[in-house]
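Extended Data, panel c. Modelled sequence:
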Amino acid sequence: MQLKPGSRWKSAVCDAQLVVVRPPNAAGELQCGGAPVLPIDDASAPSGNVSADFAEGVMIGKRYTDEASGIEVLGAKAGKGSLAFNGVAMTVKGAKPLPASD
């Protein structure tokens, strides 16, 4: 799995679609709903069940990150499965606080 910046992926088990913003600093597997993601041009339709451990969902426009690997992914289409990298759940990246203007 070549996770390059700008590469597009889709979930194998739900409707989620993703764009890699920042690649991981080590090789690994990006997962959605407990299953490895597929390239966006893969013709297969989502099938199977979303794992109960990874069922929080992907929100459109939100960035997800894994601090250990450095990967950052943007939700391009919402879905029922949540994201993980090498089996570790990814977290929603919060907005940077603006500096105080006195």
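The mean pLDDT is 91. This feature is highlighted in the accompanying rendering.
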